[in-house]
C-alpha cells in the first residue's frame, strides 16, 4: 500500500494526516472530512459516498442506486463549528471541509405486520396499525430532515385527518431512507405509515387504470411470448441492430403518442 493510501485509510501516523489536512484547502484539491470520528483527506468535488470510497471504505450496506432513488445511503453530519445536525443522501451530497459524517444504512423504525388484502380503505385501519400516529407533536423536524423535500409533517397531519389520498400525494417522492423517523421526537415511523397510505390509495381508492388492465391481460394471455422467444434466440449483433433501429418516443411527446408500428401494442 502506498504511504498516501495508508495515511488516508488511517494506517499511517495521525499527526501526518492532520498536518496535510490544514494545508489541503489551499490547493483546492483535498479537504478533510471525518468519518465516524476519524479524519480523511478527500477530493473536494466528490459526493460523500465517493469520498468515503476514496478514503478506503467499501460499501456493503448503505449503497444502492447511487442516483438518489433507493434511499439506502442516509447520512447524518455536522459541520465544524456548528451545533446543527444535518441530513442528506451520501450519493447526492458533495463533501465540505470538516464534515463529521455518520451513515445510517438502516433505521429500526416500527413496521406493522398485516395482511394487505384484508385491509379496507378506512382511515381507522391505519390508526389501528399505527396508533403512534397520534404521538406527533407537530415539531416539523421530519420535514426538515427529508432529503427529498417531502413535507412529512403535512403527510402525518393528513393521515390523522383520515385523508389517505392527500397523504399519498404529498409523500409520493419518499424514498424510504428513514431520516424523518430518526429525528422524530414522537417516535413515529412516518415513512412506513406513508407507504401504507400510498399502497391503500393505489390499490383501494384510486380509479382503475383500464389501459393497464388491458396490458396485464395481454401479458397473461401470452400475447408477447412469440416475440420474447425471438429476442431470447437473437445473437448480440441482431439485438444491437434492433435496439438501435427501434422507434423511440420523442422526449416531449404528449400522452396520446403511439408508435407508427402498432404490431406490438
Ligand atoms: S419522507 Fe422520510 S423516509 Fe421519505 S425520503 Fe423523506 S426523510 Fe426519507
Ligand atoms: S418529527 Fe415526528 S413529532 Fe415532529 S412533526 Fe414529524 S412526525 Fe410529528
Ligand atoms: S445510493 Fe440510492 S439514494 Fe443514495
Describe the structure.
- This protein is an alpha+beta fold.
- It has helices at about 5-10, 15-25, 50-55, 125-130, 140-145, 150-160, 165-170, 180, 190-205, 210-220, 225-235, 235-245, and strands spanning about 30-35, 40-45, 75-80, 85-90, 100-105.
- Strands 2-1-5-3-4 form a 5-stranded mixed sheet.
- A hairpin with a 2-residue loop joins strand 1 (about 30-35) and strand 2.
- Helix 6 packs antiparallel against helix 7 and helix 6 crosses helix 9 (about 190-205).
- Mean pLDDT is about 90; it is low at about 1-25.
- FE2/S2 (inorganic) cluster binds near residues 65, 68, 69 and 91.
- The site of FE2/S2 (inorganic) cluster has 13 residues, from loops.
Secondary-structure map with pairings?
Blueprint: H1 3-8, H2 14-27, E1 30-35, E2 38-43, H3 48-54, E3 74-79, E4 86-89, E5 99-103, H4 123-129, H5 141-145, H6 152-160, H7 164-170, H8 179-182, H9 190-205, H10 210-220, H11 225-233, H12 236-245
Parallel strand pairs: 1-5
Antiparallel strand pairs: 1-2, 3-4, 3-5
Helix pairs in contact: 6-7, 6-9, 7-9
One iron/sulfur cluster is lined by residues 136-142, 152-153, 156, 183-186, 188, 190.
Amino acid at each position: 500500500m502506498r504511504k498516501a493510501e495508508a495515511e488516508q485509510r488511517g494506517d499511517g501516523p495521525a499527526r501526518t494526516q492532520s498536518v496535510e489536512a490544514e494545508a489541503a484547502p489551499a490547493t483546492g484539491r483535498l479537504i478533510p472530512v471525518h468519518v465516524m470520528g476519524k479524519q480523511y483527506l478527500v477530493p473536494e468535488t466528490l459526493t460523500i459516498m465517493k469520498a468515503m470510497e476514496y478514503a478506503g471504505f467499501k460499501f456493503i450496506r448503505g449503497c444502492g442506486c447511487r442516483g438518489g432513488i433507493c434511499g439506502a445511503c442516509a447520512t447524518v453530519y455536522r459541520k465544524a463549528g456548528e451545533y446543527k445536525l444535518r441530513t442528506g443522501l451520501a450519493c447526492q451530497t458533495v463533501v465540505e471541509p470538516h464534515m463529521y459524517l455518520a451513515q445510517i444504512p438502516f433505521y429500526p423504525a416500527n413496521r406493522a405486520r398485516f395482511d394487505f388484502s384484508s385491509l379496507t380503505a378506512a382511515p381507522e385501519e391505519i390508526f389501528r396499525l399505527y396508533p403512534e400516529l397520534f404521538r406527533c407533536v407537530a415539531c416539523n423536524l421530519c420535514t426538515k430532515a427529508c432529503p427529498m423535500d417531502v413535507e412529512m409533517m403535512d403527510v402525518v397531519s393528513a393521515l390523522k385527518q383520515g385523508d389517505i389520498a392527500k397523504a399519498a400525494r404529498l409523500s409520493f417522492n419518499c424514498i424510504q431512507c428513514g431520516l424523518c423517523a430518526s429525528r422524530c421526537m414522537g417516535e413515529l415511523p412516518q415513512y412506513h405509515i406513508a407507504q401504507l397510505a400510498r399502497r391503500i390509495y393505489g390499490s383501494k381508492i384510486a380509479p382503475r387504470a383500464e389501459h393497464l388492465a388491458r396490458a396485464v391481460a395481454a401479458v397473461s394471455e401470452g400475447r408477447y411470448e412469440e416475440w420474447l422467444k425471438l429476442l431470447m434466440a437473437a445473437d448480440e449483433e441482431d439485438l444491437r441492430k434492433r435496439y438501435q433501429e427501434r422507434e423511440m418516443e420523442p422526449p416531449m411527446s404528449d400522452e396520446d403518442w403511439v408508435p407508427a408500428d402498432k404490431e406490438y401494442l
